[in-house]
Each structure stands twice: as C-alpha cells, then as structure tokens.
Amino acid sequence: MAKKHKVGISSFAYCFACGSRAFHRPDHIMTPFDLIDKAVELDVDVVQFGDNMPLEIYSDEELEKIRIYAEERDIELEAGMRKATEERLSQYIRITRLIGGRILRLITDGAGFEPDFQEFCRILSDMIPQLEENDVVLGIENHDRFRASEYAQMAETVHHPRIGLTVDTVNSLSLEEPISEVLRNMAPYCVCLHIKDYTIKRYNGGGGLKITGACPGTGRIDIARCFEECCKKSESDFNVILEAWMEPCDTMNETLQMEEEWAKAGVEILKRTVMTQ
Hints:
The protein has 277 residues and is α/β, with parallel strands linked by helices. The protein has 8 helices and 10 strands. Helix content is 39%, strand content 19%.
C-alpha cells in the first residue's frame, strides 16, 4: 500500500504573527483558530502547533473547541512541545489526544533540563504505555545538542513504533551537520518532515558569514530530495510541515506581509513536491 503524506503548516511558519519574536510583536497575536483558518486559506491539510503556540495554556474545554473547529474544516492537528520531562510528556500526550492528534513533535531540552543520552532513552521507554494508550506517536526533532546519529541511535535503542523522529532540514546546522548527514541518519525513522530553507551570506564588509533563513525554494535546501529520501527510507506515513527562519523587516506590517509571502511560496513548493512523488 502506498504511503500517505499530507502538506501542513506549523506555527513556526508564522513566528512573528504568533508573537514569538519578542522584539517584534503584532497588535493581534495569532491564535490556534487563526492558524487553522490559515491552513484553510492556503488549502493544506495539517496544522502543527509548535511550542511558540503552547497548547498547555488552554483548558480541556478550549482544547475541545479547537479540535471541533479543525474537524469541521477537515484539518488534521499535530501537537508540539519542548522540555521532555516525564511530567510534561504525560501532559502533552494527553493534550495531543484531546485535540484529536496522533503526532507529538518534541524538542528534548528546555530551561534547566538537558538529559544525557541514557536518561532520555529511559524517559522514552517509560512513556511507551501512555503513547500506546492514547494512540500517539512521538517525533523527536533534531536540534542543538545531539547529533543526527545520536537521534537515530535513540530511535534504535528504544525501538518501538510509537517512537520516531521529526526530520528538520535546517536545525542541525547548529552542529555544522549538513542535510546529507541528517538524512542519512534520521530518514529511516521519519514520522514528520519539517521543511525550511536557509542561505549563507557575506556580511560585515565581507569579514564574516551569516547563516539566515530563506524563502522556501530560494535557498540551499533541495526540498524534493529531502522528501524523496524520507519517502524511500521511512516505513511510516509522515506529513510534510512548513516552517521558516525569517528575519524581521523594517516595520511590523512589512514583516507580516513577507511572512505571508514565504508561507504561500513554501506551501506551493511542498504541494508540488508531494504530488509528484
């Protein structure tokens, strides 16, 4: 049976609209309902709430309203969190179930919490009964501290169908790991693919280099190759979720306008990529 892949947007595609860039905050902060409306407007099937739009601040009744609002518009929801303590994992597994989601994207570290490899694997193993009971799959995302090979080793060590990886196309640059290294190690365990683009520019009169975000399709990431590699190597259905690293413009209105332009451009590229697979 052919694997299924849907295109979606993350709250991290709208960092400024969500108010998660403190130095640039709009008058109206985007809500989960607004993000679902954006998904409808962009004609995508999935919304992933990142930790810049934390669902833990909402009551059970409010989460139920978010679920119903998405279901009425045929939008699939995924949850996201950071700081993988057992307490917070339990909280977000429950939240994922309450919004009708199946994927919980996870950043391991958080304020005052940086587990070592063995401790994190133990936590993951302890969470398996709750993941099974709530029909949730955990997607651990490559980020700043562990290398791509270590994330693959985590998935292999715990070795359970409820534990997979969220493959992010740019995050591992913080460890100077190219996308080829990320895909080689992480693609076999992919349960979610985050697409964002980047470029490297000369700055300071040519005296240095700056890594910065790029509008999807204009930077250094071969989006089609990332998708193809994950399709070829992963046995899981996974959704392709748009994110962005974008610097602010001179004004908030210009920033929000450019953020919208990047989202539209990114969604169109992801649709073409998924449709041609």
